[in-house]
Amino acid sequence: MWLHASTRLDFNPEVATPFLFMLRPRSGWQQWIGREEYVLAPSVPAVEFTDAFGNLCQRLVAPAGPFSIHASAAIECPTSADAAPGAPFVEVQFLPEEVLPFLLPSRFCESDCFYEMAADLTAGCLPGWNQVRAIVDHVARTIRYTPGSGSILRSAREVNDCSDAVCRDMTHLAIALTRALSIPARMVVGYLESLAPMDLHAWFEAFVGGRWYTFDPTQLNLDGGRVAIAYGRDAADVAIFTQFGDPVPLTLMEVRVQPMNAPPAALGRLLP
Length: 272
Prior knowledge:
There is one protein chain. By secondary structure, the protein is an alpha+beta fold. It folds into two domains: about 1-80 and about 240-260, Immunoglobulin-like (Sandwich), CATH 2.60.40; about 90-220, C8orf32 fold, CATH 3.10.620. It has four helices and 14 strands. The chain has helices at about 115-120, 130-140, 155-160, 165-180, and strands at about 1-10, 15-25, 30-40, 45-50, 55-60, 65-75, 145, 165, 185-190, 200-210, 210-215, 225-230, 240-245, 250-260. It has a four-stranded antiparallel beta sheet, with no helix packed on it. It has a four-stranded antiparallel beta sheet with strand order 4-5-2-13, with no helix packed on it. Strand 7 (about 145), helix 3 (about 155-160) and strand 8 form a beta-alpha-beta unit. Helix 2 (about 130-140) packs antiparallel against helix 4 (about 165-180). The relative contact order is 0.24.
C-alpha cells in the first residue's frame, strides 16, 4: 500500500538555537520512499548526516522568531507487519555483529534488572518469537495504553511500577524484558496508519529466526501500514528533535497519515 505521511513542527525561539532533527524515513526492505518534501520556514542552511544506527539526521540553527519544519513523504509499505510464531531464538555466538548493541542494557531499558521477571513470564514458551509475544502480552495486559500522558521519559524500571503509560514507555519495558533473555531488541519511532489519536508512534523489533520482527504492546493486532523513521536502543536515540541551549517550547505538532489511492507517478516499487 501507499501512504502519505507528514509531520509539522512549530517553534518560536527567543534566540538563534541549534537543533538536531530526525524526520526523514529512508528506504529499506520493508518500505520504499517514493517522494518527499522537507520545508524549513524561514529557509536556513541545514546539514544531513547518518548516525550510528543508520538514521537520517538534519542539523541546523533555527533563527530567533517563528520557525517551522514540514516533512512529508509518499511511502510504499506492507498493509500489516508480519508475525512468525515459532521463529527460533538465535544463540548469541551466531548473531550478526550489527545487532549485538541491541542486547545490552541502555539508559531507559535496564535489561540487567529484569532477568528473573522475563524468565518467569516466558516459562514454557518456545525460545524466540513466542517468548517475545508472551512479554508483549504481559505488558499490554498489565499497563493501560494512555496516549498523551507521557510528558516525562520513563525507564523500564519506572514503567514496571505504573498502571498506565504511553507507547514509548511501554516499549521500554518490553525491550528490557526481551533483552534480558538475550534476544536483541531495538526501538522504532515512526508512523502507524491506523493509530488513533494520530501521532508519531513507538514500537520495537526483536531479532529472532535470523531477522527483525515487529512487536507493539499497544497494538496487538499488527494491521495497518507502518513507516519507520528512526531506530535506536531506546528513546534517547530516536528523538525526532533535540534542542540545545535554553528550552524552546514546541508550539505546534501536527502528524497526518493518509492512504493514497494510487502510487505517485513514475516511481519505482517496493521489491518483494
